[in-house]
Amino acid sequence: MSNLVFITTSLDGFIARKNGGIDWLNDIPNSENSDFGFNEFMKRIDAIVLGRNTFDLVLTFNYYPYIKQVFVLSSTLKSIPERLKSKVEILTGEPNKIVELLINRGYKNLYIDGGKTIQGFLRQELLDKIIITRIPILLGSSILLFNNLTNEQKFEHIETVVFNNALVRSHYKKLLK
Fold this sequence. Notes:
Dihydrofolate Reductase, subunit A; 4 helices; about 30% strand; eight-stranded mixed β-sheet; alpha/beta; single chain; globular; two-stranded antiparallel sheet
């Protein structure tokens, strides 16, 4: 079982503006029409675990981007849009219990997404790999990816790839204790 993160941040480590906006991602240089490895990444995962705020953001997109089963972590969300009922399920609980539940359902490799959700998995030391693509912009003050972590965790660098001489994607694997 692996819990993996594939996320984009600003150079200063932010994942969204204070209001949750990600409009700054629209300025990504994409002269090669690349998905920056996202489709390859999606082939390696069995299901997606999203935070509520990230799910709400996905619902504003012009299209639904996921073909894998999605589990939304929320204690307040009560229903899923009708068009997504077969693709999305709401779960509540601590990350370790969510992982246990999904393992019991046969899922092995989970894509973890959403700032608070990623932080919750980190606090319980449940992330095995982190893939971060840095966008060459400084947002200055927004929502940090790594915030309020209480325990040090060590990762080893696996690879770094540069896209369009601007975006830098780095892949890290958690070191075993």
